[in-house]
Amino acid sequence: MKLKFIFITLLFSVHNMVQAQQNNIITHKDWLNYTLNQYYKLNLIVFQQNSTLKDIDKIFELFTDDFTYVHPNYGGVYTREELYKGYKRNQGNGGYDGSVVDIKIQNIIYGLNAITVSKRFITKENGKMVEGNEQMALFKFKHGKIFMIKEYW
Protein backbone atom coordinates (compact mmCIF):
# COMPACT_ATOMS: atom_id res chain seq x y z
CA MET A 1 0.00 0.00 0.00
CA LYS A 2 2.81 2.39 0.94
CA LEU A 3 4.67 1.57 -2.29
CA LYS A 4 1.51 2.29 -4.29
CA PHE A 5 1.21 5.73 -2.62
CA ILE A 6 4.86 6.52 -3.38
CA PHE A 7 4.41 5.45 -7.00
CA ILE A 8 1.28 7.59 -7.44
CA THR A 9 3.00 10.59 -5.81
CA LEU A 10 6.03 10.14 -8.07
CA LEU A 11 3.83 9.80 -11.15
CA PHE A 12 1.91 12.96 -10.21
CA SER A 13 5.17 14.86 -9.68
CA VAL A 14 6.53 13.78 -13.06
CA HIS A 15 3.26 14.80 -14.71
CA ASN A 16 3.49 18.27 -13.11
CA MET A 17 7.12 18.67 -14.19
CA VAL A 18 6.27 17.74 -17.80
CA GLN A 19 3.31 20.12 -17.78
CA ALA A 20 5.49 22.86 -16.31
CA GLN A 21 8.16 22.34 -18.97
CA GLN A 22 5.52 22.52 -21.70
CA ASN A 23 4.51 25.92 -20.31
CA ASN A 24 8.18 27.03 -20.07
CA ILE A 25 8.06 26.92 -16.28
CA ILE A 26 11.48 25.92 -15.01
CA THR A 27 11.82 27.02 -11.40
CA HIS A 28 9.77 26.59 -8.25
CA LYS A 29 9.05 30.34 -8.30
CA ASP A 30 7.90 30.13 -11.94
CA TRP A 31 5.53 27.28 -11.09
CA LEU A 32 4.04 29.16 -8.12
CA ASN A 33 3.64 32.29 -10.22
CA TYR A 34 2.04 30.37 -13.10
CA THR A 35 -0.51 28.74 -10.77
CA LEU A 36 -1.31 32.06 -9.08
CA ASN A 37 -1.83 33.77 -12.43
CA GLN A 38 -4.08 30.92 -13.61
CA TYR A 39 -6.17 31.30 -10.46
CA TYR A 40 -6.69 35.03 -10.98
CA LYS A 41 -7.20 34.67 -14.75
CA LEU A 42 -9.90 32.04 -14.24
CA ASN A 43 -11.59 34.12 -11.52
CA LEU A 44 -11.79 37.08 -13.92
CA ILE A 45 -13.62 34.84 -16.38
CA VAL A 46 -16.07 33.71 -13.67
CA PHE A 47 -16.68 37.31 -12.56
CA GLN A 48 -18.17 38.11 -15.98
CA GLN A 49 -21.91 38.12 -16.51
CA ASN A 50 -21.84 35.32 -19.10
CA SER A 51 -19.66 32.90 -17.11
CA THR A 52 -20.70 29.26 -16.85
CA LEU A 53 -20.43 26.42 -14.37
CA LYS A 54 -17.56 25.04 -16.49
CA ASP A 55 -15.66 28.27 -15.80
CA ILE A 56 -16.05 27.69 -12.06
CA ASP A 57 -14.99 24.05 -12.46
CA LYS A 58 -11.72 25.20 -14.08
CA ILE A 59 -10.84 27.20 -10.96
CA PHE A 60 -11.50 24.21 -8.74
CA GLU A 61 -9.18 22.03 -10.84
CA LEU A 62 -6.37 24.13 -9.34
CA PHE A 63 -7.30 23.04 -5.78
CA THR A 64 -6.41 19.96 -3.76
CA ASP A 65 -9.29 17.78 -2.58
CA ASP A 66 -8.69 18.99 0.99
CA PHE A 67 -8.46 22.67 -0.02
CA THR A 68 -9.66 25.31 2.44
CA TYR A 69 -10.49 28.97 1.97
CA VAL A 70 -10.03 31.15 5.03
CA HIS A 71 -11.53 34.62 5.21
CA PRO A 72 -12.07 35.71 8.84
CA ASN A 73 -13.81 38.92 7.76
CA TYR A 74 -16.42 36.95 5.73
CA GLY A 75 -17.28 34.04 7.96
CA GLY A 76 -14.11 32.11 8.64
CA VAL A 77 -13.11 28.78 7.13
CA TYR A 78 -14.74 27.24 4.07
CA THR A 79 -14.17 23.75 2.73
CA ARG A 80 -13.67 23.17 -0.98
CA GLU A 81 -17.31 22.07 -1.25
CA GLU A 82 -18.65 25.10 0.66
CA LEU A 83 -16.64 27.49 -1.50
CA TYR A 84 -17.85 25.75 -4.67
CA LYS A 85 -21.45 26.15 -3.54
CA GLY A 86 -20.74 29.83 -2.86
CA TYR A 87 -19.38 30.37 -6.37
CA LYS A 88 -22.44 28.64 -7.86
CA ARG A 89 -24.80 30.66 -5.68
CA ASN A 90 -23.13 33.95 -6.63
CA GLN A 91 -23.25 33.03 -10.30
CA GLY A 92 -26.90 31.98 -10.07
CA ASN A 93 -28.05 35.14 -8.31
CA GLY A 94 -26.22 37.51 -10.68
CA GLY A 95 -23.39 38.33 -8.30
CA TYR A 96 -20.92 38.02 -11.16
CA ASP A 97 -22.01 40.96 -13.29
CA GLY A 98 -18.80 41.93 -15.08
CA SER A 99 -18.04 44.88 -12.81
CA VAL A 100 -14.64 43.36 -11.88
CA VAL A 101 -12.53 43.86 -15.00
CA ASP A 102 -9.04 43.10 -13.72
CA ILE A 103 -6.97 42.08 -10.74
CA LYS A 104 -3.81 44.15 -10.32
CA ILE A 105 -1.05 42.38 -8.43
CA GLN A 106 0.94 44.93 -6.46
CA ASN A 107 3.52 42.66 -4.85
CA ILE A 108 4.36 38.98 -4.43
CA ILE A 109 6.54 37.32 -1.81
CA TYR A 110 7.56 33.77 -2.72
CA GLY A 111 8.26 31.06 -0.20
CA LEU A 112 8.58 27.29 -0.20
CA ASN A 113 5.17 26.12 -1.44
CA ALA A 114 3.62 29.47 -0.50
CA ILE A 115 3.00 32.92 -1.93
CA THR A 116 1.83 36.10 -0.25
CA VAL A 117 0.10 38.49 -2.62
CA SER A 118 -0.88 42.13 -2.40
CA LYS A 119 -3.55 42.87 -4.99
CA ARG A 120 -6.34 45.25 -5.97
CA PHE A 121 -9.57 44.56 -7.83
CA ILE A 122 -10.12 46.88 -10.77
CA THR A 123 -13.83 47.60 -11.26
CA LYS A 124 -15.86 49.50 -13.80
CA GLU A 125 -18.07 52.07 -12.08
CA ASN A 126 -20.10 54.60 -14.05
CA GLY A 127 -17.94 53.96 -17.11
CA LYS A 128 -14.67 54.57 -15.24
CA MET A 129 -12.00 52.14 -14.08
CA VAL A 130 -11.58 52.25 -10.31
CA GLU A 131 -8.81 50.60 -8.28
CA GLY A 132 -10.11 49.00 -5.11
CA ASN A 133 -8.35 48.87 -1.78
CA GLU A 134 -5.14 46.92 -1.50
CA GLN A 135 -5.80 43.37 -0.25
CA MET A 136 -3.46 40.67 1.01
CA ALA A 137 -3.78 36.90 0.54
CA LEU A 138 -1.64 33.89 1.42
CA PHE A 139 -1.62 30.89 -0.94
CA LYS A 140 -0.26 27.52 0.19
CA PHE A 141 0.48 24.70 -2.23
CA LYS A 142 0.63 20.92 -1.92
CA HIS A 143 1.18 18.22 -4.56
CA GLY A 144 1.16 20.74 -7.39
CA LYS A 145 -2.13 22.40 -6.45
CA ILE A 146 -3.45 25.18 -4.23
CA PHE A 147 -4.01 23.75 -0.75
CA MET A 148 -5.21 26.85 1.08
CA ILE A 149 -6.01 30.50 0.47
CA LYS A 150 -6.20 32.85 3.44
CA GLU A 151 -7.44 36.37 2.85
CA TYR A 152 -6.29 39.22 5.12
CA TRP A 153 -8.73 41.96 4.25
From TrEMBL:
State if Signal is listed as a keyword.
Answer: yes
Write down what this protein is called. Answer: DUF4440 domain-containing protein
The signal peptide, as residue positions, is: 1-20
Q: Where is the DUF4440 domain?
A: 52-130
Q: Does the keyword Signal apply?
A: yes
What are the record keywords, sorted? Signal
